[in-house]
Amino acid sequence: MPAVKLLELGAPLRLDRYELVGELASGGMATVYLGRIGGVGGFQRLVAIKRLHPHLAREKEFIDMFVDEARLAAGIHHPNVVPILDIGASEDGYFLVMEYVEGDTLARLLARAHAKGERLPVPIALRVVMDTLAGLHAAHELRDEQNEPLGLVHRDVSPQNILVGIDGTARITDFGVAHASSRLSTTRGGQLKGKLAYMAPEQARGQKIDRRADVFAIGTVLWEVLAGRRL
Question: Would you call 16 a catalytic residue per the annotation?
C-alpha cells in the first residue's frame, strides 16, 4: 500500500464538498490527495482528488490540459480505466475527482520486488499488462457524440500510471497529456509529452502518432516486468 502523507491536524481542509485527508502523490502539474465525502446517515466515500498546482492555476495551457483530461477520461467506461467522477474549481484552483483505487502503482510494486532481489511472478505480470491493454483499447476506441473516432492516444503509458488494486485488477490512469482530435489544448512546438524511456521512436521525434505509440509503450512495460530491470 502506498504511504499516505496525512495532512496536519486542525481545521479540516476542503475542496468544495470534499475533505482532504492526506497526500498520495505529487508531480510537476498537480498533487493527488486522498479525499472523503460524507452523506446522510454517516455515509462516507474515499476518493482521489487531483488538484492543479496553484502556480499553474492561471496558465491557460495547463487549465485546458486539466479540463481535457477530465472530459476525455470521463467518456471511457471500462473496468480497467480509473473513472473520473467530478471536476470543479475553488479558490485553491481546479481539481478533478477520481475513484480511489486501494492498491499501488506498478512502479512501486516493481521497486519493492527489485529491492528484495525478486521479480513479479510471470502470471501476475501478464495479468497486469493484459488488463492495461484492455483499458487502453477502450480508450483507443472512444468516439464522440457524432460517432466519429476521437483518435485518443494516452502518450504516457508507464508503470507509474498503472494502478494495481487489492482486488487484483490493474487500471490505466492519468490522461493529462493524452492526444485526441477534440482536445482544447495543443502542444507547443518542440515539446515532448510523456516519459522518454517508454516512448515510441516517432513520439520521441515529435512526429505524428496514433494508438501504436501506446502499444509500443506497454510492450516496453511488459519487457520491464518480465526482465526485472529497465529496457
Answer: no
3-state helix, strand, coil in the chain (%, to 5): 35, 25, 40
Angle at 227 between CA 225 and CA 229, to 5 degrees: 80
pLDDT at 183: 52
Instruction: Tell me 55's DSSP state.
Output: G
The Cβ of residue 193 has, within 10 Å, a number of other Cβ atoms equal to 15
Over residues 62-102, the pLDDT tens digits come to 788 778 777 888 889 999 999 989 888 877 778 889 999 99
- The active-site residue out of 156, 174, 210, 214 is 156
pLDDT (0 to 100) of residue 119: 94
User: DSSP H helical segments within the chain, as ranges?
Assistant: 60-74, 106-115, 122-140, 201-204, 212-227
- For residues 25 and 198, give the distance between their C-alpha atoms in angstroms, rounded to a whole number: 21
| pTM of the shown model | 0.86
Rounded CA-CA distance 177/194 in Å is 7
The answer to whether the CB of 26 falls within 8 A of the CB of 10 is no
pLDDT score recorded for residue 112: 94
pLDDT at position 82: 94
Nine-digit cell at 80? 480497467
Lay out the sheet containing 103-105: strands in order across.
103-105, 162-165, 170-172
Q: Residue 211: which of 144, 139, 148 has the closest Cα? A: 139
The answer to whether 35 touches 22, Cβ cutoff 8 Å, is no
User: Which sign, positive or negative, has the C-alpha torsion 208, 204, 143, 95?
Assistant: negative
Residues of the chain with pLDDT under 70: 1-12, 176-177, 181-193
